[in-house]
Amino acid sequence: MNANDLATQHCSPRKGKEHALDATQVAELLQQLPGWRLRDDGMAIIKDFKFADFHHTLGFINAVGFMANHEDHHPDLEAGYGHCQLLWSTHDVGGLSLNDFICAARVEALLAH
Ligand SMILES: C[C@H](O)[C@H](O)[C@H]1CNC2=NC(N)=NC(=O)C2=N1
């Protein structure tokens, strides 16, 4: 599945280990998402974003937050004046589910122009 296909999907409730992706699935999906990397423990995906100033950073966070609430899937955020790090993992499966990759692709779509 490529990034455009992922970004057209919506998150669905994925609870329980049976929804956890295996390492092969994770590697294939990650290839579709430039700049995203696996956390060392393999249980989350992360990307660092850079912005011109605090206004742009906050605008990004608000756009991501709106999307995340709509999808009912929420990232961890770390941000400062001109940067934001997003982390997706699925607490309900204790690792990565398709929801994390859908949301990462939706973030990329927010920035595409
Ligand atoms: C009840 C609600 O749908 C769940 O708690 C959702 C909310 N947002 C979530 N966000 C993330 N990142 N992982 C989850 O497992 C998760 N679960």
From TrEMBL:
This chain is encoded by the gene named: phhB
Q: What is its EC number?
A: 4.2.1.96
Query: Which family does this protein fall into?
Result: Belongs to the pterin-4-alpha-carbinolamine dehydratase family.
Arranged from A to Z, the UniProt key words for this protein are: Lyase
What domain of life does the UniProt record list for this protein's source?
A: Bacteria
Does the entry feature the keyword Lyase, yes or no? yes
Organism this protein belongs to = Rhodanobacter panaciterrae
PANTHER family, sorted: PTERIN-4-ALPHA-CARBINOLAMINE DEHYDRATASE (PTHR12599:SF0)
What is catalyzed by this enzyme?
(4aS,6R)-4a-hydroxy-L-erythro-5,6,7,8-tetrahydrobiopterin = (6R)-L-erythro-6,7-dihydrobiopterin + H2O
- The protein's name in its UniProt record: Putative pterin-4-alpha-carbinolamine dehydratase
